[in-house]
Batch of 2 targets.
Target 1
Amino acid sequence: MNSLYRFLIVVVYLLTFQQYYAQVEYEKTQFVAPLHIPLILSGNFAELRSNHFHTGLDIKTKGSEGYRIYAVDSGFVSRINISHWGYGKAIYVTHPNGYTSVYAHLSRFPDKIEKYLRKKQFENETETITVYPDSLDLLISKEEIIAYSGNSGSSGGPHLHFEIRETETEKAVNPLLFGFDIKDDIRPTVSNIKIYPLENGFINGKDIAKVYPTAGMSGEYRLKDNPVIEVDGEIGLGVHTIDKLNGAGNKCGIYTIELFVDGSKVFRQTMEKIDFFTNRYINAHKDYNEYHLKKRSFHKSYVSENNKLELYDGLINKGKLNFKDDTMHQLKYVIKDTYGNTSNVNFQLKSNTKMAKTISQVLSLGDTINMAGDVAIEKAGFKAYLPENSVYNDLRAKYKEEEMSKTASGLHQFGNSKIPVQHYFIMKIKTQNIAKNMEKKAVIVSVSSDKRKVYAKGGEYKNGWVETKVRAFGNYAVKIDSVAPAVTAVNISEGKNLSSAKNIQFQDIR
Ligand SMILES: [Zn+2]
């Protein structure tokens, strides 16, 4: 046995052991339920959302507000948040066992906490507030009522958003690992497999990604109609999968995805912990277009260059597959929910180095935006400066300027909204025919693809140009903002449905 092989065995053993050990440790904490009604979920940990993985459980409250919320363990209130969006009214309780529990979208708090909060609001002369009480200010005993459920903040209906975080790292941990009385004996559903051409990769002669629907039952899937799939070069795989839990039809997220090629594991992801600082890299993990255009949750089973998520282990070549041996290969996905309910998908890929190939021209137009290094795009009336690693892979972004009425500039089309972006970047647009007294009111707006809606993105006028920071490709122009500035709040770390919250304010330009 050579030493590399021995080393690999030790690594695999350690990873397996670590996983086992971690689960046992979670089980040792004895949290009680945060609600005294049956815990039925409308959302679970790490399910795919816009620009973030969901960091907790969404527990149903029978469509109404005012249910008592109980502290899952003793501790102290370490934070209270009052906001009109994001988590809304939220309370954090830090426990002696190293975890902090978080309860969000609440309607109100019991007297002891309301009184404390009122005092702080009065001192700060503000209603929306974040307070961090000292550890002796608001002591909490196990199962004490700490709040009443609600629908505050960016909540789409009454429910409790419940999280468990590691106090020290503030990483969110999958609450289903802690043994709450939540039932799930339903296997994950697998709807489609997707094959992506990577470096010199081809699928049936084309360099275009292809979706294959699955067929099967009782957790054993194959590809519908058993298609012959010929591949060559570097290929990536993705899988469209969700999980349902007992008692509700809601589509929730899975726990692990493993990919095997000819019996060897090449990829594994585990939804155990999520770091808020890297959560937006979900855009490198999920198939962005499938999610945003078709509402389908595809997990990619390879790790692209600009992906800082810590969900992966057991990777061989980052999960990217190379086909160049002209033989048939057996592929297998093993997908589990947090309770170990399992679904498998078995299918074949045929390596064929000799198949006829056509190269599509789709990607050959536009400005190159490479991940490495800063990128400057400078046109006659438009400039964009993207910091390093703003995108998740090297790409081309088309640029075009056209006339647009009721604006103070041309309409600048820079890439399109299907391209995900990690970092804010500077955008400058040259103004046209702008009255001196209106210069201060000039803002950059993003314009919907049908050109009927605009969304204010802020901006500052300087020497004939307006400058702001944005975090999306698409259509942009300058408008004179005669109403109060739109919400430009930027919160990257928490809260659900942030993207919709950001886009609440708009005006009709017709
Ligand atoms: Zn939630």
Target 2
Amino acid sequence: MVAQRLLEHLCERPALPYSEIVVLSGEPTSAYNRILLSSWLAGDAEPESLTLKPDEWFAEHGISLRQGNPVSRIDPDQKQVHTGQGHIESYDKLVLATGSRSASLGLKGEGLEGVVGFRDLRDTRKLIEISQRNRRAVVIGGGFLGLEAAEGLRQRGMSVTLLHRGSHLLNRQLDDVGGALLARSLTERGISIQTRTSPVALLGNHRVRAVQLNNNTLISADLVVIAAGITPNSELGNEAGLDCDRAILVDGRLQTSDPSIFALGECCQFDNLTFGLVDPGYQQARVLAEVLSEVVGETDSSAVYTPDITPTKLKISGIPIFSCGQTRPDHNTESVVWQDHSTNRYCRLLIRNQTLAGAVLFGETRDGPWYTEQIQQATDISDFRSNLVFGPAYCEALA
Ligand SMILES: Cc1cc2nc3c(=O)[nH]c(=O)nc-3n(C[C@H](O)[C@H](O)[C@H](O)COP(=O)(O)OP(=O)(O)OC[C@H]3O[C@@H](n4cnc5c(N)ncnc54)[C@H](O)[C@@H]3O)c2cc1C
């Protein structure tokens, strides 16, 4: 998604800064909206609607697409990339936007048929196919991805058990009250939720048949979805000798330790930050388009990537959840919590030095963008703090 955004920014310029642009993609299609995989799984979107640009767009801009042909090696000395099919491509500038993959849990049985990640079109097609012929699914991971997978499979008619290691769902975003509200909503829809539970093995001969848990019980399963975090695809960079930590290290201009190679999106690490949402990647794409144009002498901008606060939303219809900024209180924050039991609404704000540091909204998320603005702009909230949980209309009345 991020490489595609970079191409679009480059194509917006009066003239393309490169005479030749080649996109080497591991997937058999051009770039698509990965975020909508959840909607496709839930039956709310068709796969065709995920495509970001038609093939003609690439042809019109003189961009060559080489699809379904992953790069297997970079040779930085020769300035060449080698693909798995033996193709060699030379470059002046190389951009790595290899994203990430579903993290492995290192469980016995992860290679069995019916054990699937939730990352791309192929995974999602497999999930849908299995759901059409089978009944019992186990989803491992109670973060955004796991919840969306669980709800999608439920909507496809499967009986779903969700396993989560933490004490409550979305434990990075919600406190125990918000987590309990969410669990109740999902349980009412028929999803079975087991928190403080981890799988220790996936059992079966050829196909997965059961999940063995750390409390020594077994759950029967025809499908197991592993959605317990992501691992940046940084191996290509690492093997080419680029400086890497948890991902490929870049500076504010998205440059790696090799001045001809850039990285952005989920495969890169800036300072101590790695990324799991698309917006930071889109900001990086804007900066990198400037930098790449400057490198060929078109501009002399001093574009630099500066990380921003990125809000997150749960994409399950009927269960609106919004989270932005700091999600866990610490000894420097105060918590303001508001809950309406009758309407199942809940809001938790974290305040530090009279500025908003984080916001979690459950049940009604309309004010999310306004809270994001207050966090990003570090607004002094002293004048309207007492009304902060009630949203902008009440705060503006006091300010
Ligand atoms: C189901 C789902 C729902 C999501 N929902 C949200 C959401 O609501 N909000 C949000 O902000 N984010 C969401 N995300 C995350 C978002 O999709 C990512 O942040 C975004 O796609 C990252 O873009 P990227 O370009 O870094 O990586 P990707 O979009 O993953 O693209 C990387 C591409 O590189 C290819 N590649 C990898 N290795 C090679 C190689 N060696 N050679 C050639 N090609 C290679 C991969 O096949 C892939 O096509 C979701 C993700 C998933 C899976």
